[in-house]
Write a structure and sequence with these properties.
Layout: H1 18-22, E1 28-30, H2 33-48, H3 66-79, E2 83-87, H4 96-107, E3 112-114, E4 123-126, E5 148-151, E6 157-164, E7 168-169, E8 172-176, H5 177-187, H6 189-194, E9 198-202, E10 214-218, E11 220-223, E12 226-229, H7 233-238, H8 250-264, E13 270-272, E14 279-283, E15 287-291, E16 294-295, E17 305-312, H9 321-335
Parallel strand pairs: 1-2
Antiparallel strand pairs: 2-14, 3-17, 4-17, 5-15, 6-14, 6-17, 7-16, 8-13, 8-15, 9-10, 11-12
Length: 347
């Protein structure tokens, strides 16, 4: 007899709730003086050998004792709570290039960097260049200072390095997709079933010529006993601009709204205010993230600025069909880079 996955809560360490996590500080790893010494020495190794950043591998960035700690962090990302904050990189005494090289070097111990846009960029600048992404489909949420609804990014893990904080606001917020799944199961199992069905999701202009301007994915999937979630209500809603996309049903809208409301609830979410030098890593398959609206400084050099990295990690080689198709798509971004449709300055 086959068990219906909708009959039972999904059991995982990643099914945490914010109030429980905030009581501890074990989700934060603070770099020690020895860690930073190793990072600086690895940086000098890269610079002295004149290795181009995109070619820097784990072997090019030797970390004698920190490497074991990063292995533990990777395990926490893949099989634990699904998130980690690394704190204490002194970016204020580093150039942007050097800080980014250290960040990249740490990333090589967690996975393989993949493209995050149609230009094939392996690193992205999270910085406001516009504000109205409801009407400008060449603008992404991370390019605005407005509130970002809960979502997950492409790839297995997303990383953010904070170079500059906002003048006010800009709080990062995360929530467990598994906890949300289980809460919907408890309250509205009829809506949970809707989230196991396909949704049409907007590529927002970054599709390849001749291909559909959207892709199809479920919010929740159980693949060979492993949990996968893909949520981005904003892009599902904007895909409705295409006449060939089926209209959202009332049940689908209610199910997405319930997911978003639960992610925002005090019972589930965890808020964190970035400090300069923080590195946040999230498992996209079991964590959704958001950010509050923020106000920038007037001075260009003080404006909120984060560097984003997307990673494929070792244990996610066997993934559901929808995830596999999306992974192929972003690999093509890297293999076949094109001129970007993204907004690059205020208009």
């Amino acid at each position: 007899m086959t068990t219906n996955v909708l009959d039972y809560p999904y059991d995982s360490m990643a099914a945490w709730k914010g109030p429980d996590v905030v009581e501890s500080s074990d989700w934060i790893y603070t770099l020690t003086p020895q860690d930073n010494t190793e990072l600086y020495e690895a940086l000098e190794h890269v610079k002295s050998n004149k290795i181009q950043l995109s070619n820097v591998s784990r072997e090019d960035f030797p970390l004698s004792s920190l490497s074991e700690k990063l292995t533990n962090i990777l395990n926490e990302l893949e099989t634990g709570r699904g998130f980690k904050l690394i704190r204490g990189l002194p970016v204020w005494e580093l150039s942007e290039e050097d800080a980014t090289t250290i960040y990249w070097g740490i990333g090589t111990y967690l996975g393989k960097a993949v493209a995050q846009n149609m230009m094939g960029d392996l690193l992205g600048h999270v910085k406001a260049v516009g504000s109205n992404w409801d009407q400008n489909f060449n603008l992404r949420g991370y390019q605005t200072p407005v509130h970002l609804p809960y979502h997950c990014d492409k790839s297995d893990v997303v990383g953010l390095l904070c170079l500059q904080i906002a003048k006010a606001g800009g709080t990062s917020s995360i929530a467990s997709s598994i906890s949300i799944h289980n809460e919907i199961l408890k309250r509205r199992p009829d809506l949970l079933s809707e989230l196991y069905k396909p949704f049409f999701i907007d590529h927002r202009g970054e599709e390849f010529e001749g291909e559909d301007p959207y892709y199809i994915a479920q919010v929740f999937t159980i693949h060979k006993g492993r949990f996968f979630a893909r949520f981005g209500q904003k892009y599902v809603e904007s895909a409705q601009r295409f006449p060939e996309v089926p209209r959202l049903t009332d049940a689908q809208i209610e199910a997405m709204n319930m997911f978003s409301d639960l992610a925002l609830s005090k019972e589930i979410r965890l808020d964190m205010d970035f400090q300069r030098g923080d590195m946040q890593f999230l498992n996209n398959h079991c964590i959704v993230h958001s950010r509050t609206e923020y106000q920038d400084y007037d001075e260009e050099e003080r404006r909120r600025h984060l560097i984003r990295m997307l990673l494929f990690t070792p244990s996610y080689k066997d993934v559901p069909k929808n995830t596999k198709n999306l992974n192929k798509f972003i690999r093509r971004w890297q293999e076949e880079p094109r001129k970007s449709v993204l907004l690059t300055n205020e208009s």
